[in-house]
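This section describes the prediction task in plain terms. A model, or a person checking by hand, is given the sequence of a single protein chain and must write out its three-dimensional structure as a string of tokens. No templates, partner chains or ligands are provided. The sample shown here is typical of the held-out split.
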Amino acid sequence: MIGFISPKAEYEREAYRKALKEQRSYDAADYGRLNANWRASIESAEMTDRYGRDTIRARARDMERNSDIMNSVIRAYKRNIFGKGYRLRASTGEEELNQKIEHYWRIWCKKQNCDVTGTQSFNAMMRMAIQRKKVDGGILILKRYTGGGLVPFKLQALEVDELDLTSVAPRHQGNKVAGGIEYDPYNKPVGYWIRQYSIDGMDAVEPTYIEAKDVIFFYTKNRPSQIREISDMTPTMIRIRDVNEFMRAVSVKERILACLSAFIKRALPQSGIGRYGGGGTGANAGTDERYQGKTLTPGMIQYLNPGDEVQVVNPSGQATDATAYMKQEIRLVGAGQGLSYETISRDMSESNYSSARQGMIEDDLTYEEDKEQLLEIMDEIYESFVISLVLAGKVSISDFWGEKKEVYLSHSWIQAPKRWIDPLKEANANRTALNTGQKTWADMAAENGKDWKEQVDEIAEIMEYGMKKGIDMGGVIFGQSIKTDTNERKP
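The expected answer:
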């Protein structure tokens, strides 16, 4: 209305309003010249991820096949989250039952007992799950109750691609289907529509509905509205690709600089004068030498046309030093993935003990998040395994289905130890922590990948055997110390 009566007054009013708004707003919300191309919208996590999920997954798999930096990140996660594997420690309260369950678990973890395809051990499946989560964003692990193994319980690994996106009709009233998964009104998964790949990967079989209780969906949920996976490598994929393209360009440039080029300079124009209609001497008399497609080879002797002159071009100089650029890019990739530069590049030239130790501590904190998720999956698999043991009659527990069921399912996992950077410094630190109560013997044994009771038994057995043979093994046993000079026990 103001503009209709007085355009000048309307323009001035709008200018002042805009100036006041810019003073009150955040710089990150400004749409001025510097942020003119920064356009973002508010959407649910599923709407944000849905249209780019498959493209990101395909590109991540391409990098998995062709990028050394990508594989460096993936392998760092695999060897630190799972590594050599985890050792089961059953805690039922009955030592004999514990030993039986642990014995059967070791047998079940073999490929012929735990995998429906019979091709992967349990450790191999868990390593693959970590890799697929990092690249694809997630993996489906199905519980299959079938025979042919130690117990009628096996695992089947499926790719997230095999979720059937065409299924939209829910099996239960009031539910909804999105991304091949049926959800209840609280967005809790109740079933999965699976369209499994055929064996040749070309045709897909008819979709199958599998209840959620038999499916383990291993992925990271970053937003409350997120219901499907997205590749963990998404924030750093563009930077990894930039590094790959840069190194390819540098490689091509270096190869070009290493080449010797020759150009034919014609002193006289070609003509058809003469009996044979062309120049040439000797064996080539009467013919024209054509140079199209000719290449230089070591020791080559080539006749030239009369008047032709060879000029050799030997380019000098070298390609741009890529070291500084590569280091900076790898550091940024590591920052995006929560890892140190040394972990990804394996370059320790700028590290000392303190910096390497600090980097390892920070990296371990990054791995802990995925370790926690992985152990939750392993817990669920272990509980299904114990139930299958009971149902198959491998172990006899009379009151298993009563109130003590959770007690019989109690357990813990002991991860295989890491090697120390400086064993002497680590040993002294552990001794101090033990003497000051900051660590217990059980903590130290777990860090070494052992059960503390078994370690104490081993030490006692070794010392006792050494004393029988007259060899001082060191240490203390039953309040009796061993003198290192006389090999005699002293109360």
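For orientation: Residues 45-237 form one domain.
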